[in-house]
Amino acid sequence: MISFEKMYITISESLGIYTKDQLYELFTTKEHGLPISGHRAAIIQSRVFFFCVVFAVLVPAWSIIDLLFLPSALWGGLLTIRAVSGIVFAILAWLSRRQPTMKLARLLLAGMLAVTPIFYLASGYWIEGYPLTSQEQIIAGLYGLLPFVMVAGLTLFPLTLFEFLAYAVPLFLVTLVSAFPGSEAEIPQAVSTMWLLILILGVALFSSLTQLRYMLSQVSRASYDVLTGMLTRRAGIEVLDLQFRLASMGGGSMSILYFDLDNFKAVNDTYGHDTGDKVLKTASEQICNCVRKGDSVIRWGGEEFVVVLPTADPREANEVVSRIMTAGVGERPEGGPVTASIGVAEVQEDNVNDWKAQIELADHRMYSAKTSGRARSIGVDGNAILWAEGSQAQAVNK
User: Is the same domain home to 55 and 185?
Assistant: First the structure.
């Protein structure tokens, strides 16, 4: 039992895993945020593009080798198979230049990995019907390496465990079926083939998970504010741009809440920056706890926060504001609740042309809330929601 624990610790440390959350992130994408998903999609699509361009050229070009070393009767059929495969690779390379998304990245990778087994089975079926000399069998035997090439290619993609298995298992089954011994004499060769494939799969899995762990740590470091745990402004801009485009193209809703903590400078000036940091941290935790799972919270700068609410119309945005006000965002060092001035803007109701205009409009309404007495939110309709003195938020007309 002790040796098992030591082995687990060694493997975990080699992958950079020190918490259960980090381990869970390697199994599934459920805890991956938009910055991580976007970065991973971009990397997967760029590498699919590279592979597909290379294969689109090399697969048809290999027909020259077929012509030189295989029977001429085989050449026409193999050329057709290679030409079709080359065209498919070229199409996949063209599609991989589109705007990166995880859905598209997964489909492109699946398509790329599917071409090789189909090519492998088709070419094997075509070659099987012809008697070959020993030299010709050596060249034909190179076709049997194709599944190994694809499995080895998985080492270059940052995939979760479930994603890796979804791609690797079909390749494994295709190889298993093709290598299944037809006679007792073929059993040693079949066993060695599958053992080699399993070994390569293990190396590929370790490499893929290591890449993913490194990417998660780097993107997290670059995308999340150390103090508050919120998205940084740079990462938040990517989220804003994506969500705005999705809302604009689909005609859906997307609201923004612009927060500015009231009288925060007085906290820093009177009690010091350490106390101010504690106020910021508590406020950020409370805001994050009150928003929906698909919402994004950004530290825009200093004591200013931006909350992105995909699919939320003005009414739903005001509900989020009321929920945050009711829960509160902490207490001031001298006593009394921490409050904020909030501005709300929504894509469709405000008819804005880009996310920058939406941010500016929410910022303007936040400034109106601040000049109107602070501790309130100004919504799209111009009405104000006052910060709760007790446990209820009150809506009033401006």
Answer: yes
